[in-house]
Design goal:
Blueprint lengths: L7 H18 L7 H20 L8 H22 L5 H11 L18 H22 L2 H11 L2 H25 L6 H19 L3 H15 L7 H28 L1 E5 L12 E7 L2 E7 L6 H6 L3 H11 L9 H13 L6 E5 L5 H14 L3 H10 L1
Antiparallel strand pairs: 1-4, 2-3
Helix pairs in contact: 1-14, 3-4, 4-14, 5-10, 5-14, 6-10, 7-8, 7-9, 7-10, 8-10
Amino acid sequence: MDPSLLFLPLGIVFGLTASYYDIKNKKIPNNLYKPLFISATILHIVLLTLSLLKVIIFPPSLYIEFIVSFIYVSLVVYFLWNLKLISAGDAKMFIALSFLMMPSIFHFNHVFNFYHITFIQNALLISLIYIIPYLFTKTTKKDIKESLKRLLDWKSMLMIVLFVYAFSFLTMQLFKFLGIRSVSIFLNVIILFILLQLFRILFKRKMLYVIIGIAVLRLIIDFNQLTSFSYWYNTIIMSIIIILFRFFFIYLGYNAFSKEVKLEELKPGMILAEKIGLKRTNDKVEFIKTQDYKRTMIELMQENINDELKAFQEEFNYNPREGLKQETIDKLKEWKAKGHLKYDSFFIAENIAFGPFIFLAFILTFLFRGDIITSLFVLLLK
């Protein structure tokens, strides 16, 4: 028996408990993590000790890969959370369950030094199996038509293809530097999507020039790749995935997982699904509302309201990660009464419990020994 399976009962107990609280309260209590990490650490120490004493057949070198992969996946999860692509609860659950997964259980699609990424891939796959049908049941034909219109915006499509061409070169060099081998298209897409959001924040309106500059640099350094079929195949597939995700599923998700709530009905803890900025010019006060997911990539680059967003958050003591406070709601009503605020309602994000999907991905990763899709293909071909 693989000694790594000793971590499975810990994951099942934690996963069931976390999923229960996530479904019931839409929040996973922080006090669940401490006993898990203490128990798992003790088990890791016992397993490593028995391995060094050669009591069990379990190469100690696996722990080097475990530590490296765990650090890398923690950084990826942190960036996904920092860019607001996943919630803090989901991020902590990913990290907690990753701490229970040794490299020996990953037989299919084992990414050396970064095998935990397969766990995230499985969780995303399982989530999409539920979310995509849900999106189409919750959205109207008008929403789908509008989403397709933005999806087929040729300027945005060209921008994404150019971005993938430029930055996939950087990711390849990064993976080589970090000692990560056998990189899948999925891993490339995750890293590219993080870079896309990160560079948009860092360079704002100058992002277009940065992309063009890096693309020209790659053309000079890596010109021979232009004749490679596999390169163009990967570039096109990654571009299609990012375009579909960014301009179709996220747009539909915005409509499906947000609702309009009147000012009088706002409650503490609610999270705004739209960005609200506060602009002061002389004696005039103006509120700016914007919805990123309903704009093209070109529009996103051309508009920068970071200063206005910061002004609103400071004036109304609003933290997007914590949600509305009663103080914030009272002040919005006060400004509305004074005539400074012209909006009667706000779009509020509807929380969905992703904990059960992450837990199911954890179980299936053990069951299928890594990548679910690859494992199923192998079973079908037998």
